[in-house]
């Protein structure tokens, strides 16, 4: 009798989280995820194909790929790219054969990002104008390379950069030149991915087709001073309604941005950790604290319910989907089973419109 009661309670709890489901996506909205290798497995071969099939079965229509571009030193203009082109082509072809759209956005990475004081690409700037000019020359060459590759492999959309807060604000002329180079090489739609807290500082959205945002918004306000965070040990888990309410002012501002720029918006990258405070700080993966897989699932559900009916919203690519999830137990952005249920529920509904 007690077991039957517990089963009923569990069923009611699950039903309250997953029903009623969100409205269906429209055909132009991305139901996507970033694909990454796990456990040292190269992003090609059987593991990648199996992961793409899993994504397709979940109802996804888009896969995002981010080939690494290495900048050995942040104070020098040299960039290195192209070493994994064969793998990139393989995955693009496999995705196309499965009927998946493909989004490619090269990501500048540097060994300096992983050394104290752990700089971020958003803070990159160049004091020496000659270094700055040379960096942009190299950057346009890199974008041209990937633009041509994406044209040859029939990619759906090309990203010209992400999170360059200081550079995007200081050098709009240079970024317009990057956009032109991308258009000439690729010939298809292009986007740029601004950070969630500076997308309104980009003054050249007219140079791209879609406003991209790395949408790690702090959906719930903690009411605490800067550099202090909620205590997950004593935190009362927020409800779905509370999280949806937290999205409302963000949605209103994004709607106005889209209207002013005359461009749709899509979340080129957005993810939620398995930590209990993920709806407060989805970007904060570094510090160990209490985990709560149900909050990650709730966060994905609230986001989709908030935006899927907005005609200016072009969908999202979630961070991130691994070729072998079991080999990534310490990755806090891994999709838990609860989150996979949420995405499958939303993605597998017949398209509207």
How does this structure look, described?
This protein has one domain: Alpha-Beta Barrel (TIM Barrel), CATH 3.20.20. α8 (293-307) links the parallel β9 and β10 (313-322). The N and C termini lie far apart (47 Å). The protein is α/β, with parallel strands linked by helices. Helix content is 39%, strand content 15%.
Short description, anyone?
By secondary structure, the chain is α/β, with parallel strands linked by helices. It is built from nine helices and ten strands.
Defining key terms:
39% helix, globular, eight-stranded parallel β-barrel, TIM Barrel, 9 helices, disordered N terminus, two-stranded parallel sheet, alpha/beta
Per CATH, the class reads Alpha Beta
Instruction: Report the total helices.
Output: 9
In this structure, how is the largest beta sheet organized? 8 strands, parallel, barrel
Q: What percent of the residues sit in helical stretches (DSSP H or I)? A: 25-40%
CATH fold type: TIM Barrel
CATH architecture: Alpha-Beta Barrel
What structural category characterises the helix and strand content?
A: alpha/beta
Please name the fourth-level CATH homologous superfamily.
Glycosidases
Distance between the termini: 47 Å
Overall radius of gyration: 20 Å
- Inertia-based shape: globular
Break the fold down into its secondary structure elements and pairings:
Blueprint: H1 2-18, E1 30-36, H2 45-58, E2 62-65, E3 68-70, H3 85-97, E4 101-104, E5 107-109, H4 129-152, E6 157-162, H5 165-170, H6 172-186, E7 190-195, E8 210-214, H7 240-261, E9 265-270, H8 293-307, E10 313-322, H9 337-347
Parallel strand pairs: 1-2, 1-10, 2-4, 3-5, 4-6, 6-7, 7-8, 8-9, 9-10
Helix pairs in contact: 2-3, 4-6, 7-8, 8-9
């Amino acid at each position: 009798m007690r077991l039957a009661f517990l089963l009923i309670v569990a069923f009611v709890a699950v039903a309250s989280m997953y029903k009623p489901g969100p409205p269906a996506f429209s055909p132009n909205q991305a139901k996507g995820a970033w694909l990454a290798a796990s456990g040292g497995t190269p992003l090609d071969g059987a593991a990648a194909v199996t992961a793409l099939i899993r994504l397709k079965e979940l109802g996804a229509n888009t896969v995002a790929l981010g080939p690494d571009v290495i900048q050995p030193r942040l104070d020098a203009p040299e960039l290195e790219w192209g070493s994994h082109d064969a793998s990139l082509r393989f995955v693009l072809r496999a995705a196309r054969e499965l009927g998946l759209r493909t989004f490619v956005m090269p990501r500048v990475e540097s060994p300096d990002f992983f050394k104290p004081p752990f700089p971020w690409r958003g803070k990159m700037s160049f004091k020496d104008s000659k270094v700055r000019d040379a960096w942009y020359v190299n950057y346009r060459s890199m974008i041209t390379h990937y633009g041509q590759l994406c044209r040859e492999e029939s990619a759906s959309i090309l990203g010209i950069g992400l999170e360059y807060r200081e550079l995007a604000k200081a050098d709009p002329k240079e970024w317009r030149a990057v956009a032109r180079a991308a258009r000439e090489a690729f010939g298809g739609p292009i986007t740029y991915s601004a950070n969630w807290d500076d997308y309104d500082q980009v003054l050249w959205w007219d140079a791209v087709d879609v406003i991209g945002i790395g949408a790690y918004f702090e959906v719930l306000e903690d009411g605490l001073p800067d550099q202090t965070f909620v205590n997950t040990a004593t935190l009362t888990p927020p409800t779905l309604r509370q999280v949806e309410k937290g999205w409302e002012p963000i949605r209103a501002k994004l709607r106005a941005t889209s209207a002013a720029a005359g461009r749709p918006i899509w979340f080129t990258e957005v993810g939620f950790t398995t930590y209990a405070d993920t709806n407060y700080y989805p970007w904060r993966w570094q510090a160990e604290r209490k985990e709560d897989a149900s909050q990650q699932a709730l966060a994905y559900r609230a986001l989709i319910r908030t935006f899927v009916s907005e005609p200016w919203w072009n969908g999202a690519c979630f961070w991130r989907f691994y070729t072998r999830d079991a080999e990534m137990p310490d990755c806090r952005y891994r999709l838990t089973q609860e989150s996979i249920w949420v995405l499958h529920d939303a993605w597998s509904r017949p398209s509207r419109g």
